[in-house]
Structure formats: structure tokens, C-alpha cells
Amino acid sequence: MVGDLIRATAPDISSFRFPSRDTGNVRGWDGHLVSEAGGLNVLDGEPYWEIKTSKDAWGEGLSDFRKRSSKPSEEERAAATFIFVSSRTWDTFNTDRKIEDWVKLCRGEYAWKNVLCLDAIALDGWLDKCPAVAANFASYTLGLQPQRGARSTDEFWDEFRHMFKPLLIEEVLLCDREREVAQLIEALLRPNGSTAFISDSAEEVIAFGVAAIRTAKPEIRAFLDARTIIVDDMDAARALGDVDKFEPVARRSQEQHAEEGLGMSSSFALAIRSVSVHQATRRCSSLTSGFALPAALRRKRASAAFREARSSA
Q1: Among 1, 115, 124, 279, which is least packed, fewest CB within 10 Å?
Q2: Do 152 and 125 belong together in one domain?
Q3: Is 123 part of any domain?
């Protein structure tokens, strides 16, 4: 989760290593990255991360800090930040062992450029600013129901593919659309802007965008998954608040397009990073790309791709 929050926050990551799942117990730092531009809880430069779940955040955190601090050279520490993350709320009766006291103590040792400490309260606030990560974490880690009208890419795809028998695979939607896929991924990785595609239905064009993200290179998919959320309507957008630095995928009704004079039956807008969810749901690029194939040809190509994908699986 912390790695996903970082991807959703830091705009320019040149190096990223956060072992997780099967690799979560490997030796070394729990996380390390290089980012020229920082963001919420992510300072620029080279932050080193240690993540713990124990009740004794003070003692174990201090022990890890001192053990890890002996590894980098003095020059490396002077240019880097140590960030300690506790998955528990830092709450103690000892008035001399507050989270601020831990940070102050550590800043007085080993001469790091900076030392930060994040507890469950800080993580909760961070998740509020990264709804795509929060939605995915709530559904697939905590097993909670998704927020009404707002879904992560995984949530959307799980629902969409179950509309078909056999279950739909990404290759069907992306058949003979390599150019459009490349254009979309390139647009999503740019610092700002929006893009729009025309299709027979809003569901299909959103599914195309999600499928393109899901089939991208692993590092690109992880980056975009952490910044993408599907917003069904303005009520859901308002519930998310003024959230930036992620791509809201906004459904748009035929009535909305008629009001705005766009002349499209349906499309979706992907607002890139710096555009808030409120702006994204009101905005659609006038530069559109022909997306819809003739229905018969689309079904024929989709069937061929489906058979090929199934036979090679």
C-alpha cells in the first residue's frame, strides 16, 4: 500500500524498489526510491523507508533506525531522508515518547538530511488524497464494499469482464488498436492534458482505457493504477473532494455532450495528474480519435483475438 501511495504522489520517480507480497521478507531496506520532485510524505532526493507493524513503535523504530543508519556512508546520509512508517496509531501515556520526540531524537543522530515518521493517522490522511489506492486497498485487502460511484481499475475490470461468458480478457478490447493504446498510455504519462475517444458506449470506452493500463509494462501499470479511478457521476466526484495528482475517468452522458455541443454519442475524459476531479468531469478534449469499429468487424476481430488468447493461455 505504501508503495502505491508513493506512486500516486511523487510526480517524477526515476528509481523505485519496494519489495512486497512474496518478496516482502527480503533483506535490506523496506523501500527506497529516487525522485526529483517530492509530494505529500515523499521528499525529493533519495528517501529510505522502514515499515513496521509492531505495538512498540518507539523501541523497534529506534532499533531499526540505528541499525539501518550504520549502512549508508556519511555523505549518503547527508543527502537522503529516513522515513519510518508504523501501521499503528502512535498513542502513548509517556509524554516524552510522542511521535515528535522520536523524530527529534533521530534527527540528532547520524546526520541524515531529514527524518520523518508516519503512523496510521498519517496513512489515513494520505489515503484520503489518493482515492484510487484507497479504493483498491479497501476492496482487495480489507474486503470492504467500494465507495458508490467511484472504483479502482481492478474493481471496474472485475465487474466489466463478468458481463461476458466466457470471461472477457483484455486482448479482445485491444484487438487491432495498438496505435490507440500507445497514444493513450503516452497521454497518461504526460504531465498534464486530457484525451478522449469515441465509442458505441461509455462502458466500452472506459473498459478500453482500463484494459490499456492493465496490459502496459508492469512499472507503467503500477504507476497508472495508483493514479486512476473511475468516476460514474458528479455526485461521486463531489464525494471525493478536490483531489489532484490522479487520473479521474469520468463517464459522460449523451445529454451532457449535447449540452456542451460535442456531438458525440459517448466518450470519456482522462484528466492527467494536475487536473482536479471536478475539472475532469466537466472537460473533454475537442481532439478526439476514431475509436469505434463497425460492429460486425469488431465482433469478428474480437472473436479471433479471444480464440488466440485462449489457445495460448
Answers
A1: 124
A2: no
A3: yes
Is 141 part of a structural domain of the chain? Answer: no
**H/E element, 102:** helix 99-107
Least confident interval from 40-54, 130-144, 240-254: 240-254
pLDDT of residue 132: 80
- pLDDT tens digits, 248-270: 554 544 444 444 433 323 333 34
- Lowest-pLDDT range, 215-219, 243-247, 282-286? 282-286
What distance in Å separates the CA atoms of residue 299 and residue 173, rounded to the nearest whole number? 10
Q: With respect to residue 136, please indicate whether it lies within any of the assigned structural domains.
A: no
* DSSP character string of 118-159: E-HHHHHHHHHH-HHHHHHHHHHTS-PPPPTTEEEHHHHHHH
Domain count, the chain: 2
Query: What number of other Cβ atoms are within 10 A of residue 26's Cβ?
Result: 10
Q: What is the CATH number of the domain that holds 17?
A: 3.40.1350
- pTM for the whole structure: 0.60
